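Continuing from the previous page...

OK, I double-checked the sequence for UDP-4-amino-4-deoxy-L-arabinose--oxoglutarate aminotransferase against my notes and this is the correct one:
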Amino acid sequence: MDPVLLEEAIQDRIEKTGKTPKAIVPVALYGMPYKVDEIMAVADRYGIPVIEDAAEGFGSRYDGRMLGTFGKYGVLSFNGNKMITTSGGGALICPDGEAKQEIMFYATQAREAYPYYQHERIGYNYRMSNICAGIGRGQMTVADAHVAHHKHTCDLYRELLKDVRGITLHENPSGRFDSNYWLNTIVLDPLLRVKGQEDAYQATVQGAVGGAGGVTHVAVNAHTDCEPNANVEAMRMGLDAMGIESRPLWKPMHKQPVYKDCPAYVNGVSESLFKVGLCLPSGPYVTDRDIEYIVGGIRGLIER
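Thanks. Re-ran it with the corrected sequence; updated C-alpha cells here:
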C-alpha cells in the first residue's frame, strides 16, 4: 500500500461521497511488512481504524514488533499454504478482552441471552472447529522453526542467484523491515531472453489452477488485458516441465474484470511487478537440494 495514494484515495472518497472510508486494510504481501508508520499516520489524521491483513505475514516484524499488532485488529490466515496451518480458517488479533467478546458475539451468530434463538443484530457462524484449533495448537510448536526455514530458504536463493543477470530476488528495503519470506519472489528483466518465450501464450491454458476439489477449466482466451511478460510465462512453463511449480505474482485487483467498475488509485507499480514477477517454491519442506535444483533450472532456461 502506497501511503501517498492512500491519502489521495481518502480525500477523493470524502470529496465525491461525503463519507470517510470505514477502514484501512494494508496487506503484508508475500510476508513483507507494509510501511506501518506512514500508513498509521494517515489513518490517525482521518480517524480511520486500521485492520491489518497479516494473512501472509505471520512471524513478520516491523521495528521488531509483530505484524497484526499495530492496527485496531490484525487478521491471520491458517490456510493450508500459510506459515502454519489448521487446514483452513484463521485468527483475529484483538486489542483487548472487551473487543474480543464483541467479535466472538458476532462470530457465534449474534445470539441474545435467551433460551431460544433471538437475533437483534446480524451475526455469522465464523467459529473455528475444535479439531482445527487442536491442529493449530500443535502447529504453534513449530512456528518459529517454519519462519526460520523460510528465511534460510531466501538466503540460499539469494546466494545462488547473485550472479544470474536479469533476475532480482526481493528483499527487506531496510533494517526496520523483517519479512518472514513466506514466498520468495523474483523479477525478470523484460530484456532477459528465456527459452521458449516465442511460444508463450500460443494456446489457451488447459487445466489451470482451480478451486476446492481440484476443479479446473479451460481459459476462454490465451491472453487477458494484463498478463505476465512472455519471458516470465516461458520461465514458468519451463520450470513446470522440470516438475517445479512456480506462479505469477498476484494480479492487481483493479485489473480483475469483476472489479472493473470500482474506483482505483494506482501509480503503475502493481501492474509492472505483475508483468515481471514470479513466485518460487518456499515451503517448510523445500530442501537445500531442492533450491539448488530450482536455481539450476532457472539458469538452464536463460538463453546465452
